[in-house]
Every structure is written in structure tokens, then in C-alpha cells.
Write a structure and sequence with these properties.
This protein is mainly α. It has 2 domains: 49 residues, no CATH class; 61 residues, no CATH class. The protein contains 6 helices and no strands. The radius of gyration is 23 Å and the shape is rod-shaped. The two termini are 40 Å apart. The N terminus is likely disordered.
């Protein structure tokens, strides 16, 4: 393989994880210490996005955006149940505005479970 493909800019152009790993292995000796450090930081930042799963509450808040015009507030767990159902009904997207707040919350909860699995 042409080693010119695996310079610092070439690493970004290689598609697929296998290709990236192969490119890294073949070109590490060609990189300066600064380029190696920069690459490590970039890879760490990229993989940190996938390293943690959201908490159950974070997942519910995120999933609520699919059903509500405004996502659930951070303190939704502290709300009285009836107040929560009413808040959900008041903030339901047009598609869900005729539905009961408890039913919409069940939809939100179901979507949130996919985020934390």
C-alpha cells in the first residue's frame, strides 16, 4: 500500500473502522509526537460519545422530544403524577394532542428503554 495515504490527513479519509485501525497501525511511525497526541485526543473524544449510556431519567427526557413540543423538565420525577400527565398533555405535539398524558408518557417510556438497553 502507498504509505502516503496514511499520513495524518489520510487517516481521516479512510472509511470504516477496520481501515482506520489498519491505517493507524501502518502509519504510527510516520507521525510526529504532536500528531500522535492530537490523534489520541481526537479518537478519545470520538469514542467518549459512545462510552456512556444515558441514565433512565436522561433517556426519558431525550425521548420525550419525539412526542412533546418541549422536552420534559429535568425535575419531572419530582412532579405530582396528575400534574405530570397534565404537563404532558399541554405540551404534546399535534399528533398526540388528543391523547391522555399517561398514555403519552408510556410511549415516551417505551422509546426511552431503547436508549438505555
Amino acid at each position: 500500500m502507498d504509505q502516503r495515504l496514511y499520513g495524518w490527513n489520510g487517516l481521516r479519509a479512510v472509511s470504516g473502522l477496520h481501515g482506520v485501525l489498519q491505517a493507524i497501525n501502518e502509519s504510527m511511525e510516520m507521525l510526529t509526537d504532536d500528531e500522535k497526541a492530537s490523534l489520541q485526543i481526537e479518537l478519545a473524544n470520538y469514542y467518549s460519545k459512545f462510552a456512556t449510556k444515558p441514565t433512565e431519567d436522561e433517556a426519558i427526557i431525550k425521548a420525550s422530544g419525539q412526542y412533546l413540543c418541549e422536552s420534559l423538565p429535568d425535575d419531572f420525577q419530582d412532579m405530582d403524577e396528575d400534574d405530570l400527565w397534565q404537563w404532558i398533555e399541554d405540551n404534546a405535539c399535534e399528533t398526540y394532542e388528543s391523547m391522555d398524558g399517561k398514555y403519552i408518557f408510556d410511549l415516551i417510556d417505551g422509546a426511552a428503554r431503547h436508549l438505555v438497553l
